[in-house]
Design goal:
The complex is a heterodimer of chains A (about 120) and B (about 110). With about 120 residues, chain A is an all-beta fold. Helices cover about 0% and strands about 50% of the residues of chain A. In chain A, a hairpin with a 6-residue loop joins strand 4 and strand 5. In chain B, strands 2, 4, 5, 6, 9, 10 and 11 form a seven-stranded mixed beta sheet that branches. The termini of chain B are far apart. Classes of the chains: A mainly beta (about 120), B mainly beta (about 110). Chains A and B meet through strand 5, strand 9 and strand 10 of A and strand 10 of B.
């Protein structure tokens, strides 16, 4: 119930292509879905986040698509660049305070390599 | 830099040693976290502190002992660790102890238990 399942585990994309990473969840109480980006030797950093009152959020080349009925959300990176090569983590939490429900639950991560 | 620093960056210790990891945040946040990051596994939340009080302890073995002397500093004291404890230990902070607030991560301490 508390898991967030992320796929694929690794992804290789050509420069200029579209990178797509998918996540699925079971807990319908989740209502906050961030994506974190991690470069080697660094900690994760927030990239973009969405709440389920919208189906899509775009920030520059990064877009989150959210499908509430399917309990799935995905990250799309348009015009992928070698500098986007990193590990991407999806996560989920609830907006309700109280106990562990407010904690972030992370997916296993996707290692993206963008080839020049 | 994120405003969260961790020392040391690398640590090798034997199973009988005692060591401590240190985290400091310069962001004025009220919450601090310890996570364990292992290869091909989700980030595992270990401890959460809010205003220097522990609010979450996710069934972490007692060989890991956290300490939060003030809202800017967080320690993880280690003793009699096992080889499976080898991992990247990440510290994070946020404005408040809730997942909807952006968490700022430090670079981590790469721990190897021999």
């Amino acid at each position: 119930q508390q898991q967030v399942k992320q796929s694929p585990q690794s992804l290789i994309v050509q420069k200029g292509g579209i990178s797509i990473i998918n996540c699925a969840y079971e807990n319908t109480a989740f209502d906050y879905f961030p994506w974190y980006q991690q470069f080697p030797g660094k900690g994760p950093a927030l990239l973009i986040a969405i709440r389920p009152d919208v189906s899509e959020k775009k920030e520059g080349r990064f877009t989150i698509s959210f499908n509430k009925s399917a309990k799935q959300f995905s990250l799309h990176i348009m015009d992928s660049q070698p500098g986007d090569s990193a590990t991407y983590f999806c996560a989920a939490s609830t907006l309700n305070y109280g106990g562990s429900q407010g904690n972030l639950i992370f997916g296993k991560g996707t290692k993206l390599s963008v080839k020049p | 830099e994120t405003g969260v620093t961790q020392t040391p960056r690398h640590l090798v210790m034997g199973m009988t040693n005692k060591k401590s990891l240190k985290c400091e945040q310069h962001l004025g946040h009220n919450a601090m976290y310890w996570y364990k990051q292992s290869a091909k596994k989700p980030l595992e939340l270990m401890f959460v502190y809010s205003l220097e009080e522990r609010v979450e302890n996710n069934s972490v073995p007692s060989r890991f002992s956290p300490e939060c002397p003030n809202s800017s500093h967080l320690f993880l004291h280690l003793h009699t660790l096992q080889p499976e404890d080898s991992a990247l230990y990440l510290c994070a902070s946020s404005q408040d102890a809730h997942g909807s607030y952006e968490q700022y991560f430090g670079p981590g301490t790469r721990l190897t238990v021999t």
